[in-house]
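Support request from a user on the community tier.

User writes: "When I paste my structure tokens into the form, the page sometimes reloads and wipes my input. The last time it worked, I copied everything first. Here is what I submitted, just in case something in the input itself triggers the reload:"
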């Protein structure tokens, strides 16, 4: 049956691709890629020759139906992104939603994602976590979004790019205070892989003082707050209202 395969590719080290991913990429009729030139390098490395088509955030809405029509005609398509698992802070959501709505078979070919890779080595609680992806670019919007996690008890995971790492650490310091514990996972699976956990204040000092630590790709993992054993303020308020009603 012709299908849409959602294929995870490496986030750095080219060996981090599954045997099944290679098999599928060699078998499909077309590969839809976020950046065809970027993905062509990986395909050359793997010896994959399928025709490439561009599917990125700017054309996803226009192109998706045409891709689905091809699958309905019996052609199989693999979707890949520049790195890691498609749809995870990457294009593909619209295509997959449309495919499923139209009864086209969507098959996951799982593999790496930076969020899980970082969490697995962070040393932070990993039983419950929140993935927030990229923060808003502007400092005001960023601070507002960060404030939503002020009392979050789960580990909170963010993606960040080199242009914004310094500003984001500053915003986090402002919102959570310099004592809050954070883990920075930089350049995972690559030559300059760095995984460092410390207080926000100490990490800021370290990153601000070393230009090398501002380069590359980042996952930021924020430790959650300890769940308070007290009755919540909401419950206290409720109790107070009840008591007041009873008073003469
Ligand atoms: N689809 C990808 C995934 O499954 O992780 C994420 C794509 S998103 C456009 C790119 C962001 O992912 C980067 O800015 C960074 O936050 C994170 N990322 C990707 N590769 C990474 C790596 N090798 N080390 C650290 N972070 C990485």
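"...and here is what came back when it finally went through:"
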């Amino acid at each position: 049956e012709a299908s849409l395969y959602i294929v995870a590719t490496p986030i750095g080290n080219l060996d981090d691709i599954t045997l099944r991913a290679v098999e599928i990429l060699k078998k499909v009729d077309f590969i839809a890629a976020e950046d065809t030139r970027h993905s062509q390098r990986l395909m050359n490395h793997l010896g994959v020759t399928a025709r490439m088509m561009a599917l990125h955030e700017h054309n996803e809405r226009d192109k998706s139906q045409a891709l689905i029509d091809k699958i309905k005609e019996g052609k199989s398509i693999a979707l890949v992104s520049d790195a890691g698992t498609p749809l995870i802070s990457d294009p593909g959501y619209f295509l997959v939603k449309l495919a499923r709505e139209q009864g086209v078979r969507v098959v996951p070919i799982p593999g790496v994602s930076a969020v899980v890779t970082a969490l697995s080595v962070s040393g932070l609680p990993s039983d419950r976590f929140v993935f927030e992806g990229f923060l808003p670019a502007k400092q005001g919007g960023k601070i507002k979004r960060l404030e939503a996690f002020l009392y979050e008890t789960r580990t909170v995971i963010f993606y960040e790019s080199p242009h914004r790492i310094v500003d984001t650490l500053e915003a986090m310091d402002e919102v959570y205070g310099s004592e809050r514990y954070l883990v920075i996972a930089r350049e995972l699976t690559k030559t300059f892989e760095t995984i460092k956990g410390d207080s926000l204040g100490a990490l800021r000092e370290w990153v601000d003082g070393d230009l090398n630590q501002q380069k590359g790709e980042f996952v930021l993992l924020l430790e959650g707050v300890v769940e308070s054993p007290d009755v919540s303020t909401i419950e206290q308020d409720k109790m107070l209202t009840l008591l007041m009603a009873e008073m003469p």
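Agent notes: The reload is a front-end session timeout and is unrelated to the input. Strands lie at 4-7, 30-33, 51-54, 77-80, 106-109, 129-134, 155-160, 181-186, 194-199, 218-222. The longest strand covers residues 129-134. Escalated to web team.
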